[in-house]
Design brief:
Length: 408
């Protein structure tokens, strides 16, 4: 294990005594984005201050060094995922990664009557691209039923049929935080002849991932949710699938040649999908982030978050003031409502005490129907979250309840 108090010293946002509304900042919105450690900021600054050049565009030392750093980062990410370098495509984030598969594979291969299988718990980034592809191809959208908020193997089996061509689900839900049985699902999906895309935005920052062992066809995630920069993400894809797809974006850097007769030849993956100037500083930062997380240990991070989750549930339940929607989820996400308080009002109340939580529908706008509520408050933890911050959350909930009792 590790000491979160010591870890906090690596993060400028946490060690500088930052306040919000006159209170010490308690940041519990890590499912949305995470703070960045010194090593990530320094890596990005190194590019801007000492190594600035474009990639794959010049025959001089600065460009050569940038090229080497990009491939070093690709290798670091591949190693982090148990993948091969050629299976790692740099994108702007999870959203672009999923769109790349939707348009590059789905638009190319789906036809009328084919089925795209999702769940109602999916984030907009793993729903809306497929809605559009269904509209363009004549395919239809279907859903795996949830059992107490969870995706189950049994639910998957019942939902698959001969028309199912693509299954796209989140490894860890961004609202309820349940962990899908991805490895078991992959086996069943492949037996049916369909492809499997995993939205890893909430999984890769928190779990030890072995993409080869999971056997998913695609895995998408973002750097900013795992101590890395914004504007950088990854699509992992089995190489044979990356070879079959069409590029989502075309332009400089992804082609071998093109001619005035409107023909072109693409580079092999992953460069085939990296048109234009990459977010080079972001790639530098992402490499630093994955190495930072690896140095702490993903199993250690998961154990820390699970411990905090249990503690938070115990303490919130003692208040008798909240409804908790995901008590048995193993991830570091607690989704709740304060009795008699609309979620956004609750988040505003927490903000007045210096506590940053997310409220609303969390970009999963179909799920509230399943939960029977319009909106929820979400507190999400990470490696630098402490029990003291959980105590601050619980105390704020108590004071909010006391205020409402006195007012009404």
């Amino acid at each position: 294990m590790f000491d979160p108090i010591q870890v906090r010293q690596d993060f400028p946002m946490l060690r500088q005594g930052k306040t919000m509304q006159g209170h010490p900042l308690v940041y519990l919105d890590n499912a949305s984005t995470t703070f960045k450690p010194d090593c990530v900021i320094e890596a990005m600054n190194r590019y801007y201050m000492d190594e600035t050049s474009n990639s794959h565009r010049g025959d001089y030392d600065l460009c050569y060094n940038a090229d080497r750093r990009i491939e070093s980062a690709r290798h670091a990410v591949a190693e982090f995922l148990g993948a091969e370098d050629k299976e790692i495509v740099f994108t702007a984030g999870t959203t672009e990664s999923i769109n790349l598969v939707a348009y590059g594979y789905g638009l190319k291969f789906l036809k009328p009557g084919d089925e795209i299988l999702l769940s109602v718990a999916e984030h907009a980034s793993n729903m809306m691209p497929w809605f559009r592809i269904a509209e363009l191809t004549g395919a239809r959208i279907a859903y795996i039923p949830l059992e107490d908020g969870k995706i189950t193997v049994e639910g998957l089996r019942k939902s698959l049929n001969e028309k199912t061509k693509i299954v796209a689900i989140a490894y860890v839900g961004n609202v309820l935080g349940y962990v899908a049985p991805v490895k078991e699902m992959a086996k069943i999906i492949h037996e049916s002849g369909a492809l499997f895309l995993v939205d890893g935005a909430q999984a890769v920052p928190h779990l030890a991932i072995d993409a080869k062992d999971l056997d998913c066809d695609f895995l998408a995630f973002s750097g900013h949710k795992m101590c890395g920069p914004t504007g950088i993400g990854v699509l992992y894809g089995k190489y044979e699938n990356l070879c079959k797809m069409d590029p989502f974006l075309t332009g400089g850097g992804m082609n071998v040649k093109f001619s005035k007769d409107a023909t072109s030849v693409c580079l092999p993956p992953p460069m085939k999908y990296e048109a234009g100037t990459l977010n080079i500083a972001g790639i530098y930062g992402l490499e630093a982030a994955v190495k930072y997380l690896a140095s702490i240990g993903m199993d250690n991070i998961r154990a820390h978050e699970e411990s905090l989750k249990r503690y938070a549930i115990e303490e919130l339940k003692k208040t008798n003031m909240v409804t908790i929607y995901n008590e048995d989820a193993p991830s570091g996400i607690v989704t709740f409502n304060i009795h008699g308080v609309f979620a956004q009002d609750a988040a505003t109340l927490l903000n007045s005490k210096g506590i940053a939580c997310r409220s609303g529908q969390h970009c999963a706008k179909v799920l509230p129907e399943e939960l029977g509520t319009v909106a929820t408050v979400r507190a999400s933890f990470y490696l630098y979250t402490t029990k003291g911050e959980i105590d601050a959350l619980v105390e704020a909930v108590k004071k909010g309840g006391d205020f409402l009792d006195a007012y009404f």
